[in-house]
Design brief:
By secondary structure, this protein is mainly beta. The chain contains two helices and 27 strands. The strands form seven sheets. Strands 1-2-27-26-25 form a five-stranded antiparallel β-sheet, with no helix packed on it. It is globular, with a radius of gyration of 25 Å. The protein starts with a helix and ends in a 5-residue tail after the last strand. The relative contact order is 0.11.
């Protein structure tokens, strides 16, 4: 009798172990399938040729840093978990320097994060020389890895070196009122600053930081602005500005002449409601973020719509109030996803056949 009970119990235990093993294997398979599906997230879908691929997101410090393990001493004495999650709350402007470091502003944390994925290291810029960042918004980096940060609440632009030390600033006395996004033209040694309250693009000498030109004023005609926000410079020196009030993008030549405008208010593809950040890829296409559509739209050099990516949500490729966008030399595309508290990274695969 006792032998039968032992045998029955052994069978039950064996079945339980088998069931748990199968469940674990199924869970691993599901995770692998999800990871594979995420890795293959591309636009447009087959059979069309893929143009954009999702790569990853940066949402907290442990997307970069390695988690610390509790030592046996910590476990013995009951010390708490040494790991502390730091969310990248409400990211806005984003850029990449010559070392491949991803640099973005977090308005909510009053911090500029400098992400070195190769070294698995995060640096933080929160101010220097007695000045504290309050509402960092726009970020741009020059070829020497100087970091320019706009702070509209303080009516200031701050210049930091690659190590985060403040080296210069621009303020009201320099003509700045409410700076938003910025762009650099290395060849012409220009720093472009969009000022949404002045309804202008301010042009500074990149070396002396002296103002050299002002483009536009408030108005509805071509070449005029109504609460502009984003700016990007093309390889030929032309530059594009998102004009939120007119729901359009205006393009200017390198000598500041108006060239064309595309987009208008509407809820159909190719139209805008709240255009924000803008970037230009190596083929001259314009990538425009729309905070209301929760997407970015891609236009060719003539302003014709090619495709769009995104919708409201928190899965990869979806957004909740996107703001900034940047394309690096490797054609990686970085989009700040404010209310999902992350920066999403995509790869532009090229648009040519």
């Amino acid at each position: 009798m006792s032998s039968r009970k032992i045998t029955t119990r052994s069978v039950q235990i064996s079945l339980l172990v088998l069931a748990v093993t199968c469940m674990a294997a199924a869970a691993d398979k599901d995770r692998a399938a999800q990871a594979s599906a995420q890795a293959q997230l591309i636009w447009p879908l087959p059979p069309e040729k893929p143009r954009v691929k999702y790569l990853q997101e940066l949402s907290n410090n442990y997307d970069i840093e390695t988690r610390k393990k509790k030592s046996w001493v910590d476990k013995m004495v009951g010390n708490s978990d040494p790991n502390r999650v730091e969310l990248f709350d409400k990211p806005t402007g984003v850029a990449v320097d010559s070392q491949g470091r991803v640099i973005f502003a977090s308005t909510q944390r009053s911090t500029v994060f400098v992400i070195d994925q190769a070294q698995k290291k995060i640096s933080r810029i929160q101010g220097d020389r007695g000045i504290v960042l309050q509402t960092p918004l726009g970020v741009v980096v020059d070829s020497r890895d100087n970091i320019f940060v706009s702070d509209p609440f303080q009516h200031m632009i701050f210049k930091f070196d690659r190590d985060g030390h403040m080296t210069a600033s621009l303020g009201v006395k320099d003509g700045v009122n409410n700076p938003t996004f910025m762009a650099v033209d290395e060849g012409r040694r220009r720093l472009y600053v969009v000022d949404s309250h002045l309804h202008q693009v301010l042009v500074f000498n990149l070396d002396t930081l002296q103002i050299t030109n002002r483009i536009g004023k408030r108005g509805d005609k071509d070449g005029l602005f109504n609460f502009p926000v984003g700016i990007a410079v093309a390889p030929d020196g032309s530059f594009a500005v998102t004009d939120t009030g007119s729901c359009s993008v205006q393009v200017f030549s390198s000598d500041f002449k108006f060239l064309r405008r595309f987009g208008h208010q509407g809820d159909r593809p190719g139209e805008f409601i709240r255009p924000k950040g803008i970037a230009i890829d190596k083929e001259g296409n314009y990538w425009v973020v729309d905070a209301a559509f929760n997407n970015f739209q891609i236009f060719n050099s003539r302003g014709d719509l090619l495709m769009w990516i995104g919708q409201f949500g928190n899965v990869p490729g979806a957004f909740n109030l996107p703001m900034g966008i940047y394309i690096d030399k490797a054609q990686k595309v970085y989009v700040s996803d404010q209310l999902n508290h992350r920066v999403q990274i995509f790869q532009f695969l090229g648009g040519g056949d």
